[in-house]
Write the structure tokens for this entry.
Amino acid sequence: MNWERQHCSLLQIRGHLEVVKELLKYSNKGCLRKKNRSGFDALHIAASQGHHAIVQVLLDHDPELSRTLGPSNATPLITASARGYTSVVNELLARDFSLIENTGINGKNSMHLAAQQGHIEIVKALLD
């Protein structure tokens, strides 16, 4: 396995902030946008699992990651909203509030999914 492929896949190690920081030293934007077999990039994975610190580090490295699309055209904001990760939602909104306008392939946005799942703190954050 070549080094680039190896450390791109390692970026998706879940929850290991120090490993992600170290690997980012050797990564380019293309590597960060690489998707796994399920169609998720590193930011989507971090957002979907509520790893706020990793979300911050990835966005510091490449702010445009917040606009990448995963399965069903879901942005990291949509994913974090649906799963109830308030700190991740707040981080993404602080970086780019216009993300709130994006909808998934089903026509639902962050507000729809947060409300449907009963995530009141996220609903409040999206309304502010």
Summary: The mean pLDDT is 86.
